Amino acid sequence: MRDELFAIVDVDSMYASVEQVFDPRIRGRPVCVLSNNDGCVVTMTAEAKALGVERGQPWFQLRNHPRRAEIVFLSSNYGLYGDMSARMLAILQSVTPRWEAYSIDEAFLRIPAEGATATAVRIRERIGGWLGLPVKVGVAPSKTLAKVAAKRAKQRTERVDNLAEVEPRRVQAILDEFPVADVWGIGPRLTARLAAHEVGSAGQLARLDPGWVRRNYTVVVERTVRELRGISCIPLECSPPPRRQMVHCRALGKPVTDEHEVVDTASTFAQRIAAKLRRHHRAAGLVQVWLSSGGSYYSGAPIDVHGSQALLEPTNAARPLALAAARLARRLYQPGYQYRRIGIILPDLVAEHQVTGMWTTAKNRTIDEALTAAIDSVTSRYGKAAIGLGRAGVRTRAEWEMKQQVRSPAYTTRWDELLVAHAR
Amino acid sequence: MVVGVRSITVEGPPVVAAGFPSPAEDHYDGPLRLDDHLVKNPSATFVLRVSGHSMTGAGIADGDEILVDRSLTASDGSIVVAVVESEFTVKVLRTNPPRLQAANREYDDVPIPEDGISIWGVVTTVIHHVGPGGGRAR
Ligand SMILES: [Mg+2]
Question: Is B48 in Cβ contact with A419 (below 8 Å)?
Fold first, then answer.
């Protein structure tokens, strides 16, 4: 059945592009958006890439970049990016109700094969015109091939590529030139394993026997093989599956060496993630804490430890999660290291209503519920840093808190930060 | 002036306490919604704050909020937000000759160069707060 195709719509360097929509002064310039606490580069424009800036590069390294003065560095403004992302999805909804939000700047669509290229062009023009965001659109019979098409669209002036319009022999040639590492779902580990089987291109992967791939790899890779052959195996997921896992991981503004500070940070992060759990009506039965010195870019002795603890029963209350995280952090902490990354991972979530409450005493449950309600009502009014358990509520202690030194205004979500139009 | 009325919000039709539906229920379309009234295309509409006095003749004052629809095509006479010298500027678009015009005699026109000008969006609505202190409920 070739009467319908997949399209993927992908915004070019989303965060930087959004910033440029609202600030004409930085258009056409090298722009880098830094992660949450100004830790490292998460998005950059082609102009910044041309200056040798890499994704993931930490800010402290770029401070000494010879052409630093030309580069615009911005803190991330997730509220703004989220708003533009929601607008993009609303625009896609006006084209077809059959779309799937894949990430903040990517969405898959199901579109009729007839006139698919024209539809893709219309989508690109609409998002470009209405939001000012540059997008590329890849169209193909499967999601995996649509991703290949999107990569090709990037090189083309019209920013649209429809592989269904390309004759099969030519598609083969395209896939033969396409590195297997760039195929959707093929990570570095699989790439290395495939290299051992002398598979280096998407074309070679597509020619493998699916049965052999299933036996030697996984059904997931087998699916990729079929997808590359133009047989759709990964359907559109119109409603996102409920969250099964939640992560709150941050690069700290400056390295932390003190035990109390490590423990406090873990406790604070656990409280943040607990609030997020409550918003999603999920509960966690297992808490993991991760402490790290931050990867190869940094000097100092490397450390990368994690531990987990099961809770008596799943919960989304701040107190038990914070206690578990603090206990784990204390156990994992070793003196003499510089900690730059701390993460809380809740790997196994259940729906809030599935929690029976049979392992919690009535007294503790009452305390947790009252405490949680109090925290939620304060944070909803005064912001999430206004109150917390332990030292989480004390502002001055939290040196790792988001620095956001150069964050753009919340143009689309706050009346007191609107974009200014001059009348002069 | 009515004194002592604390709230006049009506969220739905009156329902009789005993549970009998009010006859008004069948005729109730919900309260008026300013969003629906003012914003034709929410995904393409942005709110900007005006700074300056060059548009007072068009009813746009310093400090006003303007609704800007990026899906509309500007034509002669449209009030637009344009990018002039890397700054967002609100002006009236004039096509013959191509220029951006203020709505205040004290301000000069901005000629549009050969290679054009970037129009960010078309202004559809002005929100002008009145009363003491600008009447602004923020
Ligand atoms: Mg992208």
Answer: yes
CB pairs < 8 Å spanning A and B? 81
**Residues 6+ positions from A285 with CB-CB distance below 8 Å:** A310, A311, A313, A314, A315, A348, A350
Contacts of A232 (CB under 8 A, 6+ apart): A6, A141, A142, A143
- Tokens at A86, concatenated: 């929601």
Q: Tell if the CB–CB gap between B70 and A424 is shorter than 8 Å.
A: no
CATH topology of domain B31-134: Umud Fragment, subunit A (2.10.109)
Q: What's the rounded Cα separation, in Å, for the pair B70 and B64?
A: 19
φ/ψ of A233, rounded to 5, equals -120, -15
Task: State the amino acid at position A64 in one-letter form.
Answer: N
**Residue whose C-alpha is closest to residue A235's, from A333, A74, A390, A98:** A98
Q: Which two tokens stand for residue A249?
A: 């991981």
Domains and CATH numbers, chain A: 14-80 (3.40.1170.60), 89-228 (1.10.150.20), 246-393 (3.30.1490.100)
Residue B78 has pLDDT above 90, yes or no: yes
Instruction: Return the amino acid letter for A332.
Output: L
Predicted TM-score (pTM) above 0.80: no
Backbone angles phi, psi at A256, to 5 degrees: -110, 135
Would you call A87 and B118 a contact, using CB atoms and an 8 Å cutoff?
no
* CB nearest A418 (choices: B44, B49, B83): B49
Residue with tokens 């559109």: A236
Q: Which residues of B52-66 are buried (b: 16+ CB within 10 A; e: fewer)?
A: bbbbbebebbeebbb
Query: How far apart (Å, rounded) are the C-alpha atoms in residues A100 and A183?
Result: 19
Complex prediction ipTM = 0.83
Centroid of chain to Cα B101 = 19
Chain A residue with the nearest C-alpha to that of B69: A130
Model confidence over B30-52: pLDDT tens digits?
788 899 899 999 999 999 999 99
At residue A306 the predicted structure's pLDDT band, cuts being 50, 70 and 90, is confident
Select from A274, A370, A365 the least CA-distant residue to A312: A365
* Domain positions in chain B: 31-134
Rounded to 5 degrees, φ, ψ at A297 are -70, -20
> Active-site residue numbers of B?
54, 91
- Could you say which DSSP state residue B104 is in? S
Q: Assess A1–B contact: CB distance below 8 Å, yes or no.
A: no
- Our CA-based measurement puts residue B123 at a distance from the nearest CA of chain A, in whole angstroms, of 11
Any residues with CB less than 8 A from the CB of A74 and at least 6 apart, and which?
A: A16, A19, A31, A32, A33, A34, A406, A407, A408
| Rounded distance between C-alpha atoms, residue B134 and residue A204, angstroms | 69
